[in-house]
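lol forgot to send this yesterday, sorry. struct tokens for the thing we talked abt
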């Protein structure tokens, strides 16, 4: 990160360029121009919503451009994640059964906009206050701050657009996605790459926090 003033418009353009560079348009069966045209209306909301927020740091960023599974499957987006400065692609934990990912939906407390893309604001990976807390306890901390947890789509956006957010002993659960049992999705480092796995709702891990964001999300009209 630099000491230059944070410019939300420039950052939105960077995030969109990154997704195009990673071939998201082709995965969405769109041309690059059509993909940009689909997402570009969110630019004004990014500028407005990020007003007053600090510049990005390794663990906290002003906003994320989130692409949903409606547009690009989870597995395809996961395979495009890497650790900072590395090349090994992200992968899915073998303990997810076939078809399992489709069962993990946003929890009822979240008001996730319908559609292929939206914005998430003031995103924090949770290493300051929820590291080594079970997701059940982390939820109490997060909601007590007037914040809400991240979903799988949002966690993938975080690692895709800010690879340095996933670091040794600073990985994060995604308590915003659940499937009706005690499993909680999480992204951590394994074999030198991001890994989307799951942990138990009541179990803490010294290397795992719970990511959160402001409740408000901005969707496409």
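and heres what i got for the seq, position by position
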């Amino acid at each position: 990160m630099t000491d230059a003033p944070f410019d939300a418009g420039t950052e939105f353009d960077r995030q969109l360029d990154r997704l195009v560079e990673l071939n998201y348009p082709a995965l969405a069966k769109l041309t690059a121009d059509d993909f940009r045209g689909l997402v570009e209306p969110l630019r004004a909301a990014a500028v407005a919503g990020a007003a007053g927020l600090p510049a990005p740091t390794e663990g906290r960023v002003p906003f994320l451009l989130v692409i949903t599974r409606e547009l690009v499957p989870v597995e395809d987006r996961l395979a495009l994640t890497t650790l900072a400065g590395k090349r090994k692609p992200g992968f899915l934990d073998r303990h997810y059964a076939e078809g399992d990912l489709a069962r993990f939906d946003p929890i009822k407390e979240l008001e996730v906009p319908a559609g292929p893309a939206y914005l998430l604001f003031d995103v924090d990976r949770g290493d300051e206050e929820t590291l080594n807390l079970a997701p059940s306890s982390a939820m109490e901390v997060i909601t007590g701050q007037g914040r809400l947890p991240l979903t799988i789509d949002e966690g993938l956006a975080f690692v895709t657009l800010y690879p340095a957010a996933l670091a040794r002993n600073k990985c994060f659960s995604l308590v915003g996605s659940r499937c009706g049992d005690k499993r909680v999705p999480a992204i951590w480092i394994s074999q030198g790459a991001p890994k989307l796995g799951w942990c138990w709702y009541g179990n803490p891990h010294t290397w795992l926090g719970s990511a959160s964001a402001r409740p408000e999300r901005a969707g496409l009209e």
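The chain has one domain: 8-219. anyway ping me if u want another try
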